[in-house]
Amino acid sequence: MSAGMQQILLWVVMFAIFYFLLIRPNQKRQKQRNAMLAALKKGDRIITIGGLHGTIDLINEENNTIVVNAGGQKLTFEKMAVQSVVGENVQK
């Protein structure tokens, strides 16, 4: 095998390792997050990126309104601010 061929093979192997260790897992996480955001519905209990816990009261295309704790205060957040869903469809 020539030196040029070995160098090309080395680059291909390095790219494959980089792809399977970094790019692919990040794409899977992003796909799961997008599916979670698309599945949000009224009554879901959520946690925002800032750590606020609340229940979704209204969902729009760009933002959702959540009711925070028992105080009944309404705060408006972007959908992207939702970190996780901790309970599903807890209707009042």
Can you walk through the features of this model?
The structure is a single chain. By secondary structure, the chain is α+β, with helices and mostly antiparallel strands. It has two domains: 1-38; 41-92, SH3 type barrels (Roll). It contains one helix and five strands, in the order H-E-E-E-E-E. Strands 4-3-2-1-5 form a five-stranded antiparallel beta sheet, with no helix packed on it. The longest helix has 36 residues, at 3-38.
Instruction: Tally the structural domains.
Output: 2
Element-level helix/strand string: HEEEEE
Return the CATH topology of the largest domain: SH3 type barrels
Distance between the termini: 71 Å
Share of residues in strands: 25-35%
Helix content: 25-40%
* Low confidence ranges: none
Strand order of the largest sheet: 4-3-2-1-5
Which structural class do the helices and strands define?
Answer: alpha+beta
* Quantity of strands, as a count: 5
The radius of gyration is 21 Å
Shape: rod-shaped
CATH class of the largest domain equals Mainly Beta
Let me know the largest β-sheet.
5 strands, antiparallel
Reported CATH architecture of the largest domain = Roll
Mean pLDDT level: 86
**Tally of alpha and pi helices:** 1
InterPro entries: Preprotein_translocase_YajC (IPR003849)
Subcellular location: Cell membrane
Main location: membrane
Protein name: Preprotein translocase subunit YajC
Features:
5-stranded antiparallel sheet; alpha+beta; SH3 type barrels; 1 helix; 92 residues
